[in-house]
Amino acid sequence: MQQQVRAHVPALTGVLTAVSLALVFGAVLGYIPNALVPAAPEWVVAAIPHLNVAISLAAIASISAGWYWIRAGAVEKHRLAMIASTVLFAGFLVLYLYRLILLGGPEPFPGPETVYRFVYLPLLGVHILLAIVCIPLVYYALLLAFSYSIGELPRTRHAAVGRVAASLWMVSFGLGVVVYLLLHGVY
């Protein structure tokens, strides 16, 4: 299986990215009917943003730890931290999409129009753009890590792509926390 993945890393990255973005945009734009997901009590749906901000903070910590450990030469710890980051992101995404589908789209901004236009929307736009850009980079780095041995990875683009992916991923998660604070803390 690793050899098959290795032979098709760019193509698999493209397919996984396309499927992921189709799910996200389908949920955001309301194309996925809420009848396709199980109903949940209102308190569960209301708790999702709070759980997701905790997941985001944990993901920032695990990405930071992974970055630290690879610089320290602790490859196994790095691998575990990046797997944890990926699992956290997947959990975040499942919860986020579930809530979007149930609510029929994103929640409206409750604050003043000026803050909405000049603070919230630009932050949200950069957060979304970075999240979109991160998807193929993260998939590419993960597929390389999965399909090559530790000794072979230095001959791939894993480190270069991983550095960019981790940087953008952390900024995106950080901006997500700021968006959460604007939606659920400040207003």
Automatic annotation (TrEMBL):
Keyword Transmembrane helix applies: yes
Transmembrane segments: 12-32, 44-68, 80-98, 118-148, 160-183
Protein name from the UniProt record: DUF420 domain-containing protein
Claim: Transmembrane helix is one of the keywords in the record: yes
Pfam families: DUF420 (PF04238)
Keywords: Membrane, Transmembrane, Transmembrane helix
InterPro entries: DUF420
